[in-house]
Amino acid sequence: MNHRERFVRLFQGKTVDRAPFIDAMGVCNYNSCIDRWKTEGLDINADRKDVQDIVGFDYARGYFIYAKLLFYPEFEISLIKRDGDKTYVRNHWGGVELRKDNSELMPITIEGPVKDRYTWEAVKERLIGNVSERLPKNFADVCKEAQLSDLPVYTGDLPAGFFGALREIMGFENLMYLFYDDPDLLCEILDTLCDLWVNVYSEIQKHVALDYVFIWEDMCNKTGPLISPPLFREFLLSRYKRLTNTLRSNKNNTPLFFVDSDGDERPLVPLWLEGGVDIVFPWETQFGLDIIKVRQDYPTMGMMGGLNKHILEFTREEMDKELEKVPYMLEQGYYIPCLDHGVTNAVSWDNYRYFYARLKELIYKYPPKIQI
User: Fold this and answer.
1) Cα dihedral value 22, 25, 27, 32, nearest 10
2) pTM above the 0.90 mark?
3) Rounded to whole angstroms, how far apart are CA atoms 61 and 86?
4) Please, which residues bridge with residue 303 across strands?
């Protein structure tokens, strides 16, 4: 069974030999992790790929087919101002981005290019058409390589999510007001995005079979969703259904849809499932999430993650305790164990290797028992 077959069959509830052992969150959050590990035994010339090879991961997330999934042509990146250790930059999606000196954190989008209907009219043409130009210049070669690969083939990712993209287009605060102040404009933007993604993904499907589409949302925090479930149902659900239904009906149909959202995702799970989503990720644990309870509530929902990234900062005994949930989750099927985010530079090279060596043992020892 190759990697591609194993991934798809697992999340379809079919017989597999084991769950995939993958680096779903990336080796680490920060380059300083690698710098630290080089003082603790990692080869001085090693990079993230070398770390993946040493640990023995099957792969990361699969074979990714890149596409430009927001504004095109993109905006010219330009400096707006400097303020002490802060830099404000106009990014390639037209938003104002805050970057801090010597910070390894992702830049924060504090303002989008759309504030009202007037500014929307000025940019919306950049979300329409140009499908072939949004794909890689060597698209034919990419598709051929993807098809020959034994990895799951996917597309999407940041910023392609119905909430995630809205936040980049509007900025968070303006977006929150728009749900109430101008719902007609909000619906027009959502429909334009849905049209764009249906067209781009459908074009990709003409040339290669996609195994999953990655929908990036990041629409929850530790206390729950950033919008209420009723607002999700009113504004987002029908667009989810259109996207998933269309791509599943196309030639080379996409069998799986994957949502990435940090925070407490539980209130949105029923809506994602109704909208055609198969897999939810990464199930952060810091607010007290019980991933076993989630599995019991949703026996056939695809899940990835659910292992506390901070536990790698502590003792082997504490890491072993965190891993006690894994055998049950593996045996239920529909689950790939991985961290709930990339590790921090507080994690030692010895702890990193120990945790993943133990996790790999469990994956091989406890294949799924429940199959359709």
Assistant:
1) 180
2) yes
3) 33
4) 280, 335
